[in-house]
Amino acid sequence: MTKRFAHENFSEDIQRQADQMNLDEAAIPPYTVPGPRSVSGSDFLLKERPALLKEFAENIYGEIPPRCQELDFQTVAEDPDAFDGLATRREIVIRCAQNGKARFLNMLLYIPNRREGKVPVFFGMNFRGNHAGTRDQGVRYTISKRYPTLDNSPRKCDNRASETERPMPPEEKRWGHEKVFARGYAVATICYWDVYPDHPYGFNDSILPLFFDEKTFLSEERPCGAISAWAWGYQRAVDCLETQPELDRSRICIHGLSRLGKTALWAGANDPRIALTVSCCSGTLGAKLSHRYMGEDFNWIQLWNPHWVVPAFRKYVNHDREIPVDQNQLIGCIAPRLVYIMSASEDEYADPKGEFLCGVEASPFYKLFGAEGMGGTEFPPVDTPLSGEIGYICCSGGHDFHPVGWDALLDFADHHWKK
């Protein structure tokens, strides 16, 4: 059998699980998708939404930790002539402190120099370090502790950029700086390793010791996983962005690729300050329907990244269709605020059609508010965007944030924010 999802460093066990993923539409067993129980938007916000968020927390992500006792923002560097004068670069250290402990998050913010009034901002976390995603050579190098590889798996090691890797092409293209500035939008980022190192034993170098101890994290009583920790980081970024005088706090967009796409949806569902939530190639536990057995499944998440979720998630491994919630409900918890779902045509393990159908099935939640939801029910051709309050595009290519996706997202933002 051809190993369609293979890596030279995969262990036999990991490869065996990868080979078992269903990639055949005809082999998808019957499934149901839960819809809203409420009769109005106000009823949903008052009763159903809190109950759904509780179920997602208990069964998958865990609770997002509370805002810390002390939160300070210090601008440590600024350059008004970044990107050949297109933008002002501002670097901000976010100090998060609780119970005598502190953690520091390094934000990189670009504000377009050609602007009228306060501008919207697109914030996303990066994988490689702030300096790796921009051609701006003046960005500070802020990489912290590195972790060793576990089991020769590239997904469980710190592959962030070194000082000499300015920028890294795969990371740089994910931000679309010049085209975003041209539309009059700001761009901001934090490396997700500042919040929680993506590693099973990354607890002590994360924000989580501000709230509980390592013994609790490694126990069956773990209150949250890495996805909720990263979602906490998105919320602290919003706290910081709200204080920047050039930015419009009513038009904050968060976005994320892959596991950070899962995170963005969870953060957006929990935080009504976020006006637009963008999920790119987020797959299982992101924008892909869980009850639709296609591509990545719960077994894959539990095998490869159990630190992302809470221990209670294990009872649904190999029983994906028995979980009491599905991801259309998570998107529904963002209603009536804006959502954009990006897929990629070659990213079959994230199930592009399942991500599209998730948006379709989230639309009834938007209809409770008199909104449309997804602007279509037929899976569109590649690189053809759909709009509504839920936007969608399936970009040609693999698992990544593609330039055509940025174009479609900016058109979507223009439509809703520049009327």
Write the layout of secondary structure elements.
Blueprint: H1 12-19, H2 41-61, E1 70-81, H3 82-85, E2 87-98, E3 101-112, E4 119-126, H4 169-172, H5 177-182, E5 186-191, H6 192-195, H7 214-217, H8 226-241, E6 247-257, H9 259-270, E7 276-280, H10 298-304, H11 327-332, E8 338-344, H12 352-367, E9 390-395, H13 403-417
Parallel strand pairs: 4-5, 4-6, 6-7, 7-8, 8-9
Antiparallel strand pairs: 1-2, 2-3, 3-5
What does this structure look like?
The protein has helices spanning 12-19, 41-61, 82-85, 169-172, 177-182, 192-195, 214-217, 226-241, 259-270, 298-304, 327-332, 352-367, 403-417, and strands at 70-81, 87-98, 101-112, 119-126, 186-191, 247-257, 276-280, 338-344, 390-395. It is of the alpha/beta class. It has a single domain (41-157, 164-417), classed as Alpha/Beta hydrolase fold, catalytic domain (Rossmann fold, 3-Layer(aba) Sandwich), CATH 3.40.50.1820. It has a 9-stranded mixed β-sheet with strand order 1-2-3-5-4-6-7-8-9, with helices on both faces. The radius of gyration is 20 Å and the shape is globular. The model has no long low-confidence stretch (mean pLDDT 93).
Cα radius of gyration in angstroms: 20 Å
Largest sheet: 9 strands, mixed
**Helical coverage, percent range:** 25-40%
Q: Beta-strand percentage?
A: 15-25%
User: In CATH terms, what is the fold-level topology?
Assistant: Rossmann fold
Q: What is the level 1 CATH name?
A: Alpha Beta
- Derived from helix and strand composition plus strand pairing, the structural class reads alpha/beta
* CATH architectural grouping: 3-Layer(aba) Sandwich
Structural domain tally: 1
